[in-house]
Amino acid sequence: MSKPIELMRECNQILMRLHDVNKQQLVYLRQGEFNKLDIFTDKRQAILEMLDIVEEQLDRRLNELTEDEKPAMSREISLRKEVLQSILNQEMDLHKLVEQEKSKTILELQGSKKHRKAVSAYKSGVGKNKDLKEV
Q: What is the rounded distance in angstroms from the CA atom of residue 28 to the CA atom of residue 93?
């Protein structure tokens, strides 16, 4: 097997690793476990850095690909496209789940702020003259 095909297979393996990490993170987020986002981000970044290194090597060696090896490379490229599409879908799902949790947290904080304001107004005597709902 030639070096370009070997490097493309390595790229695909790295992409599949990213797919697995994303898949696990989706499970965590769907279970409401947002405390592992930092670990996920670090893993994801390390995988992307490895991918960059291997892709650079691949770019330098692509000219070594022979005509006989082109069908094998084509299969690897097709696999790469499938994995990348799946990763893209995962990334969109991850983003959606994080945004939903962010919105939920913002609403909770706003509700808490309104509650504190109402309690504060009541304690200061404003509640005696006004309906607390107006505060």
A: 12
Contacts of 50 (CB under 8 A, 6+ apart): 14
Domain count, the chain: 1
CA 101 – CA 103 distance, rounded (Å) = 5
Count of CB atoms within 10 A of residue 33's CB? 11
For residue range 89-103, what is the model confidence (pLDDT) as tens digits? 999 999 999 999 988
What distance, in Å, lies between the first and last C-alpha atoms of the chain?
Answer: 74
> Is residue 63 a part of any domain in this protein?
yes
Locate 123 and state its tokens: 């304690």
pTM above 0.70, yes or no: yes
Identify which of 23, 24, 5, 16 has the alpha carbon closest to the alpha carbon of residue 83. Answer: 16
Q: Look at residue 122 and tell me if it is in a domain.
A: no
